[in-house]
From TrEMBL:
<dbReference type="GO" id="GO:0032259">
    <property type="term" value="P:methylation"/>
</dbReference>
<dbReference type="InterPro" id="IPR052190">
    <property type="entry name" value="Euk-Arch_PrmC-MTase"/>
</dbReference>
<keyword id="KW-0949">S-adenosyl-L-methionine</keyword>
<dbReference type="GO" id="GO:0008168">
    <property type="term" value="F:methyltransferase activity"/>
</dbReference>
<dbReference type="InterPro" id="IPR002052">
    <property type="entry name" value="DNA_methylase_N6_adenine_CS"/>
</dbReference>
<comment type="similarity">
    <text>Belongs to the eukaryotic/archaeal PrmC-related family.</text>
</comment>
<keyword id="KW-0489">Methyltransferase</keyword>
<dbReference type="Pfam" id="PF05175">
    <property type="entry name" value="MTS"/>
</dbReference>
<dbReference type="InterPro" id="IPR007848">
    <property type="entry name" value="Small_mtfrase_dom"/>
</dbReference>
<protein>
    <submittedName>
        <fullName>Methyltransferase</fullName>
    </submittedName>
</protein>
<dbReference type="InterPro" id="IPR029063">
    <property type="entry name" value="SAM-dependent_MTases_sf"/>
</dbReference>
<keyword id="KW-0808">Transferase</keyword>
<feature type="domain" description="Methyltransferase small">
    <location>
        <begin position="11"/>
        <end position="82"/>
    </location>
</feature>
Length: 147
C-alpha cells in the first residue's frame, strides 16, 4: 500500500476484512477506511484490533459492496476467500466461509472484479490477493488496460 501511494485524504475500502490487517495498514498510512465482512466474528475481530492499535476504522457487516452503497473509493483492497473447494455439496458456513471460494476459487474474486469499476473513482486502484490456483491471469481481464 505504501508503494502505491496510499496516504492522507484517500478513501480506502477493505472488502472481506477478516481481522482487519489491510484496513489497519491503510489507516496507519492516513487513509479513511471502512472495512466490510459478512462474518460477525470477523467484524468483532477487526473492530477490536483497530481499537487496540489506536486506529480509526469503520467496520461494517455486509456482503461486499452492499455495506457501502452508493460510495466510491480511491482504492479497494481485499484478501477474499480464494481457495478452490471442489465439493460443492459441503455447507459454506462457519470457518469454511473464510477460505472456501467455490469450485474454481473465483466465487468472490469475479464478483469483486465485476463490481470494482463502479465503486472506484477515476484513476482508482484495486489491490487484490489471489492465488495461481484460480487463474492469476484472469482476475480483471476485462478491465481496460489490463495486461
Amino acid at each position: 500500500m505504501r508503494r502505491e501511494g496510499i496516504g492522507p485524504g484517500m478513501d480506502v475500502l477493505d472488502l472481506c476484512t477478516a481481522s482487519g490487517v489491510l484496513a489497519r495498514q491503510a489507516a496507519r498510512l492516513g487513509a479513511q477506511v471502512p472495512a466490510v465482512d459478512i462474518s460477525r466474528r470477523a467484524m468483532i475481530s477487526a473492530r477490536l484490533n483497530a481499537s487496540l492499535a489506536g486506529l480509526m476504522v469503520s467496520v461494517r457487516r455486509g456482503g461486499l459492496f452492499s455495506a457501502v452503497p452508493e460510495r466510491r473509493f480511491d482504492v479497494l483492497v481485499s484478501n477474499p476467500p480464494y481457495v478452490p473447494a471442489p465439493d460443492p455439496n459441503l455447507p459454506r458456513w462457519g470457518a469454511r466461509r473464510a477460505w472456501d471460494a467455490g469450485c474454481d476459487g473465483r466465487g468472490l474474486l469475479d464478483r469483486i472484479c465485476d463490481s470494482a469499476p463502479g465503486a472506484l473513482r477515476s484513476g482508482g486502484l484495486l489491490l487484490l490477493v489471489h492465488s495461481e490456483l484460480n487463474g492469476p491471469h484472469r482476475p480483471c481481464a476485462d478491465w481496460p488496460g489490463h495486461g
